[in-house]
Amino acid sequence: MKIWDMFRGQSPHKSKKPRVHESQENDSQRQIINNWMIPFGVVAGFAIAAFLWLNFIDLQLFGEGRSFVDVIFLSNPADVGNALGGVSEVLIAILGLVITVVAIVVQLASQRYTPKLVELFVADRINVGYFMLMVVTSMYSLLLVYSIKSDFLPFWGSVFLLTMTTLILGLLPPYFRYVFMFLTPGNIIRIIRKNANQGMQKVLSLKDPNADTHNLQKEVANAMEQISDISLSAVSQMDRNLALLSIRTLKDVMVDHLLIKRRMPRSWFRAQKEHFPAVSTEFLQGIYEARSWVEMKGFLDLELIFKQAINEMPDAVSAVANSTKMVGLYAIRLNDIPVLRSVIEFFNTFLRLSLNNRNPKALYNLFYQYRLLAEAVLEVDEELAEKIAFYFKYYGQIAQSYNVPMILITAAFDLSHMLRKAYDKDVPNIRNLITIFLEVDDNPATQSNEFDLRSVRKAQLNFASFLLSRGDNELVKLIFEDIKDEPRERMEAIRAEMMAVKDRKFWEVTDRGVDFFYLDDDQKRYLDVFYSRYMEPHFARQSVEAQKATA
Fold it and tell me: Could you tell me the sign of the dihedral formed by the alpha carbons of 100, 105, 111, 113, in that order?
């Protein structure tokens, strides 16, 4: 199911199976015709046509009254025996050639993508079928040659060998094409995901709910490990497209499991230690209770990819963040709170890894995806969304203490966007969220950094103008009470700077495409209202009190 279908309200358990099945059958038939039958028909047809035409010409020129049937179908046993011996040698030579070529290309591909590619290749039915066809035909040709006598010609046996040899030679070009297409990274990943999905579907088909699912668990876990290996290899070799594709596929496997896990037997969720070698027994027990070993394995693999990509491939870091968010959105849709909590924990883990690495770009992208998730969490669990707001403040302040530039500002503006969504949804804990938002700059590192302090205040004033545009004077007072002790010179400078931003887009290329400090004309008008209604009377009172104190 596509994500947009899901979030339009379509049930994840309702699908048009007959139409999808019919479409898949039609696609499969077209692939067989285009990839196998047409190439075979062209090769074999050309060879047979050339054979018949040239023999017909020779018969007309040199046949001396012999019929076409005699020339084509009747032969001397001794001559046929000699010819069939050559056919046997040709078949064995072709078998050796195919094995050599395939072994080389598979080995090269497995070194580039994953060593487990060999397992996929030898398990493929077409590969096994073509090799069996060649081996059986080669053995049959040897036995047929042995059976030929001076006074006996196994006619139909010879015809069968001729047919099989033609079939093998005619299928050789499309088979080589199939091998090279099989070894393309996109096809490899597609096959791996298909294997993982089939493993999960087999669990659903078990008649005994208490049946041992260990082998099926191993099948799914191996598929996820293969995808992770491909992604890690792609990151190390700077293969951007393959890395992004494998990350998305790992997410798709997790989503496939989320969509059907409610129908899985209880034995399926008993995680095996072999799939989590580096975790404690208590951790495994927690996974079992949460019924989420597939999702947890996927997150741990994403974390491994994230660690390798953080210094080498920023796009892969963004893909990990986006994939984690998408799993969280599905968990929200399916009301799978344990998986949603795991998503939040791994977002926090990714933020910590990026902080330790002093990587502002990774943090910038993580906060954006995390905020999109938080806005969706507001609809199902306000308290959990409040915790996420706290994490924004916490990691923003840690980044400030680590001297990672712009991250505290990013956290403040993302919180401002989150608060707008919260206000529109009328969440009951909006005051708690605003309190967390106003505490973003409450640390010595921010107070000593003029640029960051002004930027955080701009985010708060941005939200204040939003509240005024909604006619809410009560919540605006919370912002005013937090800001009112700022020096007048600083607040006037902040106002002038916010009013001076004219362009919505920043003059450099940014991932989000919008200048944090931009206000449209309507917002600027309400910013003026905030200053005229709250700040300017407050400054006037301060001036009067200062004059009285001096007098």
Answer: negative
Q: What is the pLDDT of residue 447?
A: 76
* Domains of the chain by residue range: 30-182
Place of tokens 């707001």: 389
- In whole angstroms, what is the distance from residue 339 CA to residue 323 CA? 14
Q: DSSP alpha helices (H): ranges in 310-380? A: 314-333, 337-356, 360-377
Q: How far apart are CA 439 and CA 162, in angstroms?
A: 84
pLDDT per position as a tens digit, 470-497: 999 999 999 999 999 999 999 999 999 9
Cross-strand bridge partners of residue 152? 149
Q: Exposed/middle/buried for 389, CB within 10 Å: 0-12, 13-18, 19+?
A: buried
Cβ atoms of 457 and 511 closer than 8 Å: no
pTM for this prediction: 0.80
pLDDT at 79: 56
| 551 within 8 A of 543, measured Cβ to Cβ | no
Angle between helices 293-309 and 214-236 (to 10 degrees): 10
**How many CB atoms within 10 Å of residue 394?**
15
Query: CB count, 10 Å around CB of 181?
Result: 12
Residue listed under structure tokens 């208590």: 282
List, for residues 331-374, the tens digit of each pLDDT value.
999 999 999 999 999 999 999 999 999 999 999 999 999 999 99
- The full DSSP string for 66-132 is --HHHHHH---HHHHHHHHHHHHHHHHHHHHHHHHHHHHHHHHHHHHS-TTHHHHHHH-HHHHHHHH
- Which of helix, strand or coil describes residue 202? helix
- Which residue in this structure is represented by tokens 């969220």? 433
CA–chain centroid gap for 63, Å, is 68
What are the DSSP E strand ranges found in 183-261? none
Per the structure block, which two tokens stand in for 118?
Answer: 């060999």
Task: Report yes or no: 188 and 212 within 8 Å, Cβ to Cβ.
Answer: no
Residue 537 CB: number of other CB atoms within 10 A? Answer: 11
Tell me the sheet residues that pair with 149. 152
